[in-house]
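Worked example 4.2. Below are the chains of a multi-component assembly; read each line carefully before continuing.
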Amino acid sequence: MNDTKPMTKKVDRWVMVLVILGIAITAFYSFRAVRSFARVQLTGLKPGTTDVEAVRGWMTIPYLAQMYCVPADYLFQKINVPAAGNDKKSLYDLNREYFSGQSGAILPKIKDAIRSAQPACQQGKTSP
Amino acid sequence: MSSISDFFLTGLISYGAPLFGLALMLGAIGIPIPTSLLVIAAGAFSRQGMLNLVPAAGIGLLGAVTGDSISFAMGRWGGNWVSRRFGGSSIWNNAQSTFNRSSRWSVFFTRFLLTAIAIPVNLMAGSSCQYRRFLVTVVAGEAIWILVYGGLGYLFGSQWEVISQFLSDFGGLALGLALLGGGIYYFMRRRMQKSMEPELAS
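Applying the procedure described above to all two chains together yields the following structure tokens:
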């Protein structure tokens, strides 16, 4: 009987930890889930919508070309980066290699290039 | 998003389905890769024409099932050692018998819900389940994961990051509820046991 009492206390303690952890995680993620659900509702289902503000550092030039309907060569030319050997590199990598020391310098350039090319692209032309 | 996510997203759009399969395999072994995010992104990239939907889904499923099988094997070899070491204790035996009663459902649901505990479940399954039974359950669970998450990515297209964030938060909420439910269940059981103790003693 004396041996089982410390064991019982230990189990009780673990049960309490489980309940407290459960409450904490549930509260934290409930708030986040409601917030992100509201974002889903706000965004709605617009699968083809492509705003230039959605450009991210992990994207590559061929991906941006496909996503925003802009020729890849045009984008490479606009940011003064050679196309050869750079088609699989992310914007982060291109920024590091060709815009060294200027954090995030490539993003405004690429956004401007897309903005200037998109209207022509949307009118059905293949090159701006 | 973290730099690991960024690395794999760049890889996914550059190298396509083979990298997708490899990432899902490594994730299923236990390497911390945001695989659910990649499945949603793969669905969106298919919609945008960067990935071929059917081969990507097939290779992804193959990768995930291979990874699960590897962690099952680790559980089998490691489990034998753990079983020899702790097999005599009542806590171990209780945990083992509780898992055995619900192993199929545990394996199935942790493929797409409560994915954070999929690896411990694989290891537990490795030490107590038949591989064939595990494989059938894993294929069904992973197929649902890829179809539902990938399907949502496809449906939302360029807005996939929004749905990915929601599913990630929902997964966390499900984990919290599972812990809370488990805690309340054991709390009630302990109270019942305690209330019965004086009766048994008398």
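Take a moment to check your reading of the output against the notes. Chain A touches chain B through 46 residues (CB under 8 Å). The mean pLDDT of chain A is 81.
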